[in-house]
Design brief:
The protein is an alpha/beta fold. Helix content is 47%, strand content 14%. It contains ten helices and seven strands. It has helices spanning 2-9, 31-42, 49-59, 62-72, 79-90, 108-121, 134-142, 182-196, 198-204, 220-231; strands at 19-24, 46-48, 98-102, 124-131, 144-146, 153-155, 210-214. The strands form two sheets. A five-stranded parallel beta sheet has the order 2-3-1-4-7, with helices on both faces. A two-stranded antiparallel sheet has the order 5-6. The protein starts with a helix and ends with a helix.
Length: 234
């Protein structure tokens, strides 16, 4: 693993394209935050399957109705539905130089489909595994709040609103997303252990593709510095 990391660190990822960066880790590991920071550094799209599914639920279309109850209960959405969303998204013109995947793949079957999609389009891929302590995950997610008007996400511990439970931007009362409730969080972590964690073995068997970063300690910016150093980003 150290040899593979050294080899990658000697490269400048921005000079090799197209590249699919896959952020891997349990719910609450900070994938979304790190994806946004990577998006700014690399200039490629951040693709969040969770965000795409929530958008479909909000629109009330057929897929949204199908997955609403599953997501609210903390269960995984069927592979076929998520694969279709991802395939459609990465076929868009803004993904030609690469993209960042957040929340996908979550199962071995999804990983196999993704391998085919990437190979068919000539992408190389890189997996970053954010390692976190589950106790911290539960505390982190349970402390999340979102503005129902503008969608701004807050953390009561690391990024609290200036006024308790009120959005800084529009003054709306913040809410807890259904899939951020503690009972749902625990179900999501159990689903991760059963279905998603085996992906570590899948990617670990390809030693040059899996790189692990400690995501438990430090601010989001400090964690990003670890990733930046690994990828040799400017």
């Amino acid at each position: 693993m150290e040899e593979a990391i050294h080899e990658l660190a000697s490269e400048d990822l921005t000079q090799r394209a197209p590249t699919a960066v896959i952020l891997f880790g349990p719910p609450g590991s900070g994938k979304g935050t790190q994806a946004r920071l990577l998006k700014a550094a690399l200039g490629v799209p951040h693709i969040s399957t969770g965000d795409m599914l929530r958008e479909r639920i909000a629109s009330g279309d057929e897929l949204g109705l199908q997955v609403k109850d599953l997501m609210q209960a903390g269960r995984l959405v069927p592979d076929e539905a998520v694969n279709r969303l991802v395939a459609d998204r990465i076929a868009q013109p803004d993904c030609r130089r690469g993209f960042i995947l957040d929340g996908y793949p979550r199962t071995l079957a999804q990983a196999a489909v993704l391998d085919g999609l990437l190979a068919g389009r000539g992408y190389r891929h890189l997996v970053i595994h954010l390692k976190v302590d589950y106790t911290k995950v539960i505390a982190r997610i349970a402390g999340r709040r979102v503005c129902p008007v503008c969608g701004t996400l807050y953390s009561l511990t690391s990024n609290p609103p200036r006024q308790p439970e009120v959005c800084d931007l529009d003054g709306a009362r913040l809410v807890i997303r259904d899939d951020d409730r503690e009972s749902v969080i625990r179900e999501r972590l159990e689903a991760y252990e059963r279905q998603t964690r085996p992906l570590l073995d899948f990617y670990r068997s390809r030693r040059s593709q899996l790189h692990e970063v400690d995501g438990s300690g430090g601010s989001p910016e400090e964690i990003f510095e670890r990733i930046r150093s690994l990828l040799k980003l400017q």
